[in-house]
Task: structure prediction
Amino acid sequence: MSALKEKVLIGVGASPGIAIGRAMPLARRPAQLAYRQLNDPADVAKEAERFKAAVQATQDYLSRARDDLGKEMQDYAYIIEAHLLILKDKLIAQRTLDLIQAKKINAEWALGQAVSEAQGAFRKIKDEYIRSRFADVEYVTDQLMRHLSGEEANQLTTMREKAIVVAHDLSPADTSQMDLGWVMGFTTDMGGPTSHTAIMAQAKAIPAVVGLERVSQEVSSGDFLIVDGSSGVVIVNPEEETLLTYREKQEAYEIYAQEVLAQAYLPGETLDGQKVRVEANIELAEEVSSVLNYGAEGIGLYRTEFFYITQKTIPNADELYENFRTVAQRLEGKPVNIRTLDIGGDKFASSMELAPEINPALGLRAIRYCLKERGMFKEQLRAILLASAHGKVRVLFPLISGVSELMEARSVLDEVRAELDAENMAYDHRLEVGIMIEVPSAVAVADLLAKRVDFFSIGTNDLIQYSLAIDRVNEHVAHLYQPLHPAVLRMVRQVVNAAQEEGISVAMCGEMAGDPKMVPLLIGLGLDHLSMNALAIPQVKLVVRLTNCATWRELAKEALTFATAAEVAAFMTSQLKKHYPGMFENVVWAGLEG
Ligand code: PEP
Ligand code: MG
Result:
């Protein structure tokens, strides 16, 4: 293709599909900041004013961008709001001003220092999601630097030919200013699968690779790029042969994506008529429209930690109600399982004082925390009950370990119901109550629990962690984290049996449920709802529709006879190849020989 040497960069596939085209790198913060010592007090005052003007200009830019957001991008307004809040936070703006004045230094240098202090604080945060939100601080900093440098026009507004955007990071403020019709793909240094770029690119079906760390430095204007958003690979100035391979891949992907997506709207039902509801896991109300586009038949898991993670104050019932009602209404009758707060463990909250624990995964987490902080728990339950008047809302308690804990949670729910009755407030009097099965003790007493709830949802992320004693966030033991471990499969079977005995529904909402190669086995084990990240839905639905439930009931029985995860994997590989020709040719089971 070119005289330049082909270079391969690996990041995180954030929005599937393949884009091939010219790079359009956006200007970014200089790697080297200039340092100036200000000796004259008048210069210090001037510098402070210059910085304040940059803050004002950034605020104007962000406010304008928020007002300019098109109708279909309204869901992302909250991100710009978050940037406006960061701009007002003393962590950055006030700290920079203080540094200019105390150290008598120029604004750029002071800002750089304030940001690295903030970064130090963020690094200590355990929760990956919040840690990744440092990207927002960096974004606001880039905007401040841009205004400090006097640079006005944003290249994005002047895009006039199709290209692949290469940026350090992107915000909805930027993308709201750009005509997405010109954008073939996105590549960014920053970001993970939950970054704004990822959410937006998925909503717009634009291939994207994020978290490339150095793409904005490695790629120059005029470079030719291949962006493979499915595998997270970016190839800079590809050889002729690579280009040909990717052109073929691109064509095949587009045909496949159209077929899969066209089927995503069909109901989840097996070849022999067994209904398997395919639902989405969400963390933000804003995701609802996008997950519906992927064919979600409801929200199997609404993780509500976001409010507690991003805000400084604990949200009250009114605030939560607004949000839950919006979700219920947007679903237009499709169900949503709102999970009460699952804070602690690997999830950290900025608005709460959580005592440091030696072993947080076994500590004051989720329902245990809520039962201790009754006032806060009641606010959540009130909001959920009130929202139930506006749609098919169900409540889901996380980390229930046994009957007494469940009954305690239920009694708090009854208390809130009585309060609403006394106030004559409307809610769904038949609101269904479910629990997450994610602690081995809950599996052991699943028959007792099934008599006392309306549904189960198996959280395999935690169930595997607690049953195999594998820390889910520890990379050193990640290879031992095996969904196909016979113990895990037996536990799933036991929970399904208990649910079926009592005639209640049983879902799975851990990552395992969204893995297409697991789906036939899960159907065979008797799960009737699967909930997952929205991107997985079209393919999982396709697998559901190609599955014969009766066949897999028998195969699941056989799968349960094996002694090791590797044996189950080998069995699964051969059965998948036999029953889904061409679909699972290169199947890989993490940490196992397939
Ligand atoms: C789980 O544990 O499987 C689950 C879905 O919950 P979370 O990942 O939020 O802990
Ligand atoms: Mg869990």
In short: The mean pLDDT is 89. The CA atoms of residues 96 and 212 lie 29 Å apart.
